[in-house]
Amino acid sequence: MGPATIPVMMRLVAFTVDVDRDVNLPTPGKRQACSKCHDGDREEVRFSSSARGLRLIVDLLEEVGIEATFFLEGDTLLHLAREMDVRELLSRHEVACHGVCHEDITGGSTGAPLTGPEISEMLDRSRDILRQVFARDPVGFRAPYQHIDQRTLFLLQKKGFSYDSSVTRAIDEEDDSIRPWKAAGDLLEIPVASGRDQAGRRIVSYLWPMHEGKRMPDDYRHLAASVHEGALVLATHSWHVVETYNRGLLGDTSIEVSLSNLRRVLEGAREEGMEFLTLKEIAEAWQA
């Protein structure tokens, strides 16, 4: 039997942004992720694309009137806080945790899983950094690489988090729904969605393929239209609007196209009759 869900007649959508090191790559045997480098040196860590993309995405959200959830990696946040007033920049949005140095909790990509005490320390450090910068108590978590396990879910519940959003789950084809469920105690899992595009191919609500030129905005509008009940989580990276894996750093014209595509996804979901909320608001609605 699958996890219990909470039947609430809602058509909600959340836009979420992972704010982490530029074009992050797992390094075998190491906890800290690196960036895909311009000069071929795999060990470099950069934050400039993430910083620029963050400003551009926040500006876009102001224009379209949407409040989003930003999952902030601790190291990246500390770096950004030295360069900009990130507290003011994200004052209208929810902030949530995304690890400290893009740790691979389960070791699925690095072969170096975290122990239970290391996971606990990472969660505490991640939350402490957000408290330090924003003077707010984050209640949400997304695992780097979306690599999550039951140990981590139980620790999140024990530490008072309200929700996790690391799992990808298929939209139920029987009733066209995707709903949060209780993953550990009162901790909700609010999943990223997978469904079918107009050609019947699998599509996930992470916008990665669109930024890499492999998907069009209308594919995600079709995905939004396919959800008749529940909560659709759209997800991207702050750096992905200004730099990609395949093309590297983008020129100004390509960045404009990237932002335009993102706008079309957001406006398309709203035009399909979905209501934008932050993940914290969605968790509160489900718990209520």
Can you walk through the features of this model?
With 288 residues, the protein is α/β, with parallel strands linked by helices. The chain has a single domain (11-287), classed as TIM Barrel. The chain has nine helices and 17 strands. The chain has helices at 48-64, 74-83, 86-89, 116-134, 150-158, 208-211, 217-225, 252-271, 279-287; strands spanning 11-19, 24-25, 34-35, 69-72, 94-97, 140-141, 163-164, 168-170, 177-178, 181-184, 187-189, 192-196, 202-204, 229-237, 243-244, 248-249, 275-276. Strands 1, 4, 5, 9, 14 and 17 form a six-stranded parallel sheet that branches. Strands 6-7-11-10 form a four-stranded mixed sheet. β12 and β13 form a beta hairpin. α2 runs parallel beside α4 and α7 packs parallel to α8. The longest helix is centred in the last third of the chain and has 20 residues, at 252-271. The protein is globular, with a radius of gyration of 18 Å. It starts with 10 loop residues before the first strand and ends with a helix. Mean pLDDT is 94; it is low at 1-8.
Sequence-ordered SSE layout with sheet pairings:
Layout: E1 11-19, E2 24-25, E3 34-35, H1 48-64, E4 69-72, H2 74-83, H3 86-89, E5 94-97, H4 116-134, E6 140-141, H5 150-158, E7 163-164, E8 168-170, E9 177-178, E10 181-184, E11 187-189, E12 192-196, E13 202-204, H6 208-211, H7 217-225, E14 229-237, E15 243-244, E16 248-249, H8 252-271, E17 275-276, H9 279-287
